Amino acid sequence: MYLNTPPRNTIRLTRRGRMALIAAGAVVAGTAVAVPLLVMGDEAAPRPTSLVIPEGWRASQVYAAVDKALTLPSGTTKKSLAKLDLKLPNDADGNPEGYLFPATYPLERGGRRQTPDSLLSAMVDTANKKFSGAPIAAGAQRNAMNVYQAVTIASIVQAEAATKADMGKVARVVFNRLERGMPLQMDSTINYALNRSTLRTSEADTRIDSPYNSYQRMGLPPTPIDNPGEEAMRAAITPAAGDWLYFVTVKPGDTRFTADYAEHQRNVAEFNARQKKASPKPTK
Questions:
Q1: What percent of the chain is predicted at pLDDT more than 70?
Q2: Nearest to residue 32, comparing CAs of 71, 69, 58, 50?
Q3: Nearest Cα to 20, choosing from 267, 282, 276, 283?
Q4: Which residues does residue 256 pair with via DSSP β-bridges, in sequence order?
Q5: 87 — phi, psi (to 5°)?
Q6: In whole angstroms, what is the distance from residue 196 CA to residue 192 CA?
Q7: What is the pLDDT of residues 184-224, one digit of tens each?
């Protein structure tokens, strides 16, 4: 896999195709937000005993959830990062994005209430256990990358794939684009740069000056863009076999992958037609 790729290829996704590419990521994010983390009721209500971190959450969402779980002022967990000694890979440069492993974490340990430091450390330690084993390391090496790069690809797969069954194919699209010297052109990276989750990406958005702008920058983004789960990680090291360069979710359960740009355009046209038909007609 070539991470330092040659100048940008002229082939690019259509705007509607780009919008459809992140539909899966938006669904995942929406589902994650809906997870009842810890509902703080009145003082008489029992305190929650665990914190659920869903797959695909960004670090910023994790920090906010920890603050809420521990009833701390907003921003407390993020501020604590400066004094933490998290066991992160050197490539992370102290940024835990991608290594706050999605799982359920107890809010008490040894009879004591957890702290932001202990919770974040537990998440990173869990990620290291999941990602640093021989199968992951060997899979990364087999694809000419290190584990941190594999986590970065897994984070894109987590955001982009409509279903777990599609994860291997999305990973293959990422690899194929990198190997051909094409920009990834993933709207999920634009959303990360703009700290948002949306289905709408404008031409102006694709021109933002950011290392996460995968329309203007070649190769992988500098860090993961969320915290992927095990299925996404497996897809990143064992992508499905195929020559696909494009994909679009025409309708729920129907994501179409192709290497042919003309075919992709036809798929996008069908997606547009379905969206137009489904849109409510304006009232007079």
A1: 81
A2: 58
A3: 267
A4: 248
A5: -85, 70
A6: 6
A7: 999 899 999 999 987 677 889 999 999 999 999 999 999 99
3-state secondary structure of 109: strand
| List of residues 6+ apart from 127 with CB closer than 8 A | 98, 99, 100, 101, 227
Backbone dihedral region for residue 135 (phi beyond 0: left; psi -120 to 50: alpha; all else: beta):
alpha
Q: Burial of 36 by CB count in 10 Å (0-12 exposed, 13-18 middle, 19+ buried)?
A: exposed
CB 188 within 8 A of CB 225: yes
The answer to whether the beta carbons of residues 11 and 262 sit under 8 Å apart is no
Name which of 93, 65, 85, 86 is nearest 77 in CA terms: 65
Question: DSSP secondary structure string, 203-221?
Answer: TTGGG---TT-TTTS-SS-
Name, in order, each residue with C-beta under 8 angstroms of 162's C-beta and a sequence gap of 6 or more: 23, 24, 27, 249, 252, 253, 255
